[in-house]
Specification:
heterodimer; A: alpha/beta; D-Maltodextrin-Binding Protein, domain 2; seven-stranded mixed β-sheet; five-stranded mixed β-sheet; 13 helices; globular; B: mainly alpha; MetI-like fold; 2 domains; two-stranded antiparallel sheet; 2 strands
Chain lengths: 344, 553
């Protein structure tokens, strides 16, 4: 499938470069282009899973050969840690911050570390993808789902709901990612606390889960067979694994799936502000948003993007949402209680 | 006298920048409150049940690693130093390989080998025995002890092998003539003589285990438990609790200092005239029909440390899915392509690592050469103190040093955080004792008479240095350079707190990839790191004309 996604990516670039695709951006050169060329690069701290992040960067560089993208990919919480540590030492390095913890943006906005910028083409995005003050916008979205290994678990036995995971028969067979690393998971935990309360996690921990960090990793652990059920994680990683022929299946529990909208914002102190704007605009173009949907299995806010037939439509899923404000306020609590229950 | 002043000023300055400032800040921050000094951070840290547990886990880990390292290292040392076991050179080579293998790479490889379900050894075990339960579960305390021990036992091996090589056989033979059986000889003669070396090796192994970050992070965190080092690291997560981290670092520092002091006393009080003498024959003990089984036992141990992990890394590098057999469908070069051409951080990290390694090794080797020359030839007043100070950083575990450096150099007047210089300082401090020990041994072996002869013939000090001392010391200093170089490229525990996105090094990139579960790319980078390490080892061997473990053949 790598080849297929590559082909798509290449097609998107060719279309962009040729300027034949409708959608506005490619037809008129950006007003940020000249400035961006002078700046020469954009520094992107991103929590988008590494191969996907590198792909977006390569697409951008193909469209704008004079502007390089420096990708620094790590977990959402690590990104915030890096940014704040750099602030403390007065280091101005990052241009664009993209994490999956919407609470970060409430925090960063309050600290006056974000620049107000509305990317071209986000007018049609749903309200959940837009900051009312105009500082950050949802670049992509994913939902948390249950993933199981089809070699080890039959469809009939597979857990169907979040509470199915509490069954002691799964003891020692499940894996979770960590809210202290991943914004996808922090959002997930808060949404399920709304649904089932903290007791849910207390009981879940009795099943002795393996603990990994990235929201992308539970699915890879399940795919390798090291554990047979992933209790959380963005469905896009699992979707990619499944497309590549790995023995994984995704379950979207009927109780609802936590929706994670991952915002992006330009920093107030961006050393390459024009490149940052050019890059941000680029990532919101229909073409790039379509690539994310097609080859990466992500959801987006772009109204014209179409989704692969084998992915459930967002409108068909019962979505559990949390507000960025609450996520910000309860960040400490989420991490602390998770560690209390799961041990590390 | 003027010369003394220059050396002293230089040494003091270096010391302030490398040790006093970071540790001073560490100590200060651990007791600083909003209204003057306070013990609140200590109270917070040590009353937290999670942190107490981490502390206890570290004690358990370190103790068992010490014991297991002795159990592996001592017999191996005895076999290669004293018996006619076949393939002694090979065994020594493998011990050396284990010594230089970055422990976190070993831990990562053992995840692929002995993960309870997908681990390759367990898969094979299940298919052979059709058992349900795994043979090994690496995500447990015993698993962690095992993985740490197989890369720590060389410390015991070196201590014991070097001691055994110095004990003459005549005492043992005398005991045998007096009617003692083989066991009795071992118990009453050999053991007491190697006991200080054993104890000292045990302590070195314990110290390694205390300071280690990568292996617990890879094996303990998935199992839901922390050690002190991983706990300190997680205290840096946002919102950072640097004061608590500082308070939590202090006991680790004190424990290390205490243990090293005990070790020094043990070695200093050797007390047996038989050890350390050069005279006397060392007769080889014939193993008879146990020769080949003994070799097999050695190779089994070494397969745990070398063959299996290296093999699984190579397999991981060429596989699409690491847990599947390496069939035609599963074979790929994509991991290499991704690591080197698509993943932007790789090249920057390799360049950073090499720059830092070369810089630290050059400056470090120059410093230890100068300092050990000064102390050995007693060129300045208080040369013993200089020697002590150079060796002092050995008591500072990497994570603790990093906490101190972080605090000291993220605030004025010296803001070094965000540059490679803070990593350079960390590496230089950390590697200084190793380099100094090597350089010191070199100068000790060069008799002063040669230099005096030069002086009698009318040469000045500089000319003597250039024409007599330097050529003789050259290979030893090159070895010191290489030791520092190897130490830098594998360093993780300090780097993990000091890197910024623009100053990543290879070990940090590997750790990043581990957190994301990118097994293929980790395997590729791991192989690169091993290749760099072994190329450097080959250089040391060539420079020294012998193997680097230091024991005589």
């Amino acid at each position: 499938m790598m080849t297929r996604s590559r082909t798509l990516a290449v097609a998107a670039v060719v279309a962009l470069a040729a300027g034949v695709v409708g959608g506005g951006y490619a037809q008129t050169p950006s007003r940020h282009l000249e400035g961006a060329k002078k700046e020469g690069k954009v520094v992107w701290y991103t929590s988008l899973v590494l191969p996907s992040a590198e792909k977006v960067a390569k697409l951008f560089e193909a469209a704008h050969p004079d502007v390089k993208v420096e990708v620094h990919r790590t977990g959402s919480q690590r990104i915030l840690q890096r940014v704040m540590q750099e602030m403390q030492a007065n280091i101005k390095n990052v241009d664009v911050i993209h994490t999956s913890d919407a609470g970060h943006y409430v925090f960063l906005k309050e600290k006056k570390l974000l620049a107000k910028y509305t990317p071209a083409g986000v007018e049609g995005f749903p309200a959940g993808f837009k900051d009312k003050d105009g500082y950050y916008y949802g670049l992509r979205a994913t939902v948390n789902a249950i993933v199981y290994n089809t070699k080890a678990v039959s469809a009939a036995e597979a857990p169907k709901t979040w509470t199915d995971l509490l069954d002691p028969k799964w003891k020692g067979k499940m894996v979770t990612a960590h809210p202290g690393y991943s914004g996808v998971i922090a959002t997930h935990v808060l949404a399920l606390v709304h649904l089932h309360g903290w007791d849910y996690f207390k009981t879940l921990a009795q099943n002795k889960l393996m603990i990994v960090q990235s929201a992308n990793d539970p699915a890879t652990v399940v795919s390798s067979g090291e554990r047979v059920v992933a209790v959380d994680g963005g469905d896009y990683g699992a979707y990619q694994l499944k497309k590549k022929g790995n023995p994984v299946e995704i379950v979207y529990p009927k109780e609802g799936v936590p929706l994670v909208v991952s915002p992006t914002a330009i920093t107030a102190f961006a050393p390459h502000p024009n490149a940052a704007r050019l890059f941000t605009d680029f990532t919101f173009t229909r073409e790039v948003q379509q690539v994310m949907a097609d080859s990466e299995g992500l959801y987006t806010g772009h109204p014209e993007v179409t989704y692969p037939a084998d992915k459930p439509k967002l409108k068909d899923l019962k979505l559990l949402t949390v507000t960025p404000e609450e996520l910000e306020k309860r960040n400490e609590e989420i991490k602390k209680r998770f560690v209390e229950f799961f041990g590390a | 006298m003027d010369r003394s002043i220059a050396v002293w000023v230089g040494a003091t300055l270096a010391l302030v920048v490398l040790i006093a400032l970071p540790l001073g800040w560490l100590g200060w921050l651990s007791i600083s409150g909003e209204h003057g000094a306070t013990l609140a951070h200590y109270r917070d840290a040590f009353s937290d049940p999670a942190l107490q547990k981490a502390l206890w886990n570290t004690v358990v880990l370190a103790f068992w690693v010490g014991l297991v390292s002795v159990a592996i290292g001592a017999p191996l040392a005895w076999l290669t130093a004293r018996t006619d076991v076949p393939g002694r050179g090979l065994i020594r080579g493998l011990v050396l390989a284990s010594f230089v293998t970055p422990p976190f790479l070993g831990a990562f490889a053992w995840v692929m080998l002995a993960g309870p379900n997908a681990g390759i050894l367990n898969t094979v075990w299940r298919s052979v025995t059709s058992a349900e339960a795994p043979l090994l579960n690496i995500f447990t305390m015993p698993g962690l002890v095992f993985v740490v021990s197989i890369y720590t036992f060389p410390y015991v091996y070196i201590m014991v092998a070097n001691t055994l090589a110095l004990i003459a056989s005549d005492l043992e033979e005398a005991a045998a003539i007096l009617g003692a059986g083989r066991l009795a000889v071992a118990r009453t003669v050999t053991l007491p003589m190697v006991l200080p070396a054993l104890a000292s090796g045990f302590i070195l192994a314990v110290l390694q285990a205390l300071a280690l970050f990568g292996s617990p992070a890879i094996l303990a965190l998935p199992a839901g438990f922390h050690t002190v080092t991983t706990q300190i690291w997680s205290l840096f997560q946002f919102p950072p609790k640097v004061e608590q981290a500082a308070a939590f670092s202090v006991p680790l520092l004190l424990a290390t200092a205490l243990l090293l002091d005990v070790q020094k006393r043990l070695l200093g009080r050797r007390g047996y005239a038989a050890v350390g003498g050069k005279g006397g024959q060392r007769r080889t003990i014939p193993l008879g029909r146990w020769r080949w089984p003994a070799l097999a036992a050695c190779l089994i141990v070494m397969s745990g440390a070398i063959f299996l992990p290296y093999g699984v890394l190579a397999k991981g590098a060429f596989s699409r899915a690491w847990a599947q057999p390496l069939s035609r469908d599963n074979f790929t070069l994509g991991n290499f392509a991704f690591t080197f051409f698509e993943y932007g951080s790789t090249r920057a990290a390799i360049v950073n690592t090499l720059e830092l390694a070369v810089l630290t090794a050059c400056i470090g080797a120059a410093m230890v050469a100068l300092l050990s020359y000064v102390t050995n030839r007693r060129l300045v007043v208080g040369h013993q103190l200089v020697a002590f100070l150079v060796l002092a950083p050995v008591v500072v575990p990497g994570v603790v040093l990093a906490v101190g450096l972080f605090i000291a150099y993220t605030r004025p007047p010296f803001v070094l955080y965000g540059t490679l210089w803070i990593l350079f300082l960390a590496y230089l401090t950390k590697e200084m004792p190793v380099g100094y020990a090597q350089a010191d041994a070199t100068f000790r072996a060069i008799p002063a008479d040669l230099e005096e002869a030069g002086r009698v013939l009318g040469a000045g000090r500089l000319r003597i240095l250039k024409e007599i001392t330097a050529p003789l010391a050259k290979s030893g200093i090159i070895a010191a350079w290489c030791f520092i170089f190897i130490g830098v490229i594998r360093e993780l525990s300090a780097s993990i707190l000091l890197f910024t996105p623009s100053t990543k090094v290879m070990s940090v990139v590997i750790f990043d990839l581990k957190e994301e579960g990118q097994f293929g790319a980790i395997s590729v980078l791991g192989l690169v790191m091993l290749a760099l390490t072994f190329a450097t080892v080959a250089l040391v061997q060539a420079a020294l004309g012998r193997d680097v473990l230091g024991a005589r053949r």
